[in-house]
Fold this protein.
Amino acid sequence: MEITALYYLVPSLIMFCCGLYGFLTRRNMIAMLISLELMLNGVDLNFVIFNRFLFPGQMEGMIFTLFGIALAAAETALAIAIIINIFRWVNNIDIRELNQMKF
């Protein structure tokens, strides 16, 4: 029995869809950030899968994945700093209550 790309793409699709659902339905900024990270991990998994099955001897997909992980880490650090700042001003991290900061 040969393992095809479909066995790897389905979990990646499930990860991305769960992240998208969580991002669109949550109102807590931390939960939205976790959902965004889940989506990015699904995309990184796709880079590795397509590299493995389309270009088995090359490492471009792995390098893109490492850049994606570094980008996700930088994005998370920046987002946590922004969320802490918002919490200091509003004492809440609910998206619906951020319009208090407009003026």
User: Anything to note?
Assistant: The chain is about 75% helix and 0% strand.
